[in-house]
Fold these 3 entries.
Entry 1:
Amino acid sequence: MDKLNISLGIVSVSLLVLLGVQFLPEDTHYCESRNMTMDCERVSSTSRTCYPNLENTKGNKFCREGWVQIDIVDIPHHFPIKYRCDNVKCVEINSS
């Protein structure tokens, strides 16, 4: 009985970890001066403040030149590569 409970516990924890990884938010915006990406649920009207939560302002971050929406390109068998794109070109960015 103990081996069954331990096995069920391990399987349950493994499933939760795997499902949790799938539901982690992707970063949606990039700030060049901070060299950081962040998941923004919304940005201010000036695009200078990123709000990760719709309900409150906890965790918001300011970017002096404005947050830029990024596109995620997923290459099979590699880590996702993030790009900052404007109307002319896309530039690969480093996420830290």
Entry 2:
Amino acid sequence: MAYFISYKKYVTKTVTRDLSLGETNATELATIGGVTYVSIPDGAVLPSDQPAEIAGTITPVTLTPELAQKLIDANLYLQHLDAAGPSEAAWAATEKARLGII
């Protein structure tokens, strides 16, 4: 199972600061209303040296059914998993579990 965080990207005309994911195998799921949501595998820890411009915006997130649906609606890959037919059901369930979108 995964856990979730959100953060706000820092973007100017010349600079973009994103979350440093390191070797976590984390997956950026979607940006909704200026907030970016990330799925992080259990046991994985984000690098502590996050860009100063975003460090204060990193927040743990509880995945509610409503938020899960918003993430699915905003991410084509998640939409594909959500619409998987019988021949892809096992694969889709495994991917959803890996990302924590169950």
Entry 3:
Amino acid sequence: MALLNIPRILHSYFTDWPCCSYPTRSGQRNNLVWTEVPIMDVRRNLYVAAFVGASISYIFNVIAFTGTFDLFRWFVFAVIFLGVTYGFEKFIGWAETLEQ
């Protein structure tokens, strides 16, 4: 029975954060209005985060194992990484259309 309450527990946990509501002068708490984030902003943030993480990992590994860093090789890695990431996103989108 406890597993059935998990969505309710998570909902109360996430809506009770101080960043989600603010006290008024009467002492009541009013929830802030959440606006939807455009899909492109979320996608761009995910691409940037993935690119930064992969680049840092690549740079540290190359320096650790070879002791040198070649900017051209990093550029090739970046192009291949972004191409594979974009291709995988399109593949997932295509697979989701088959399920509907």
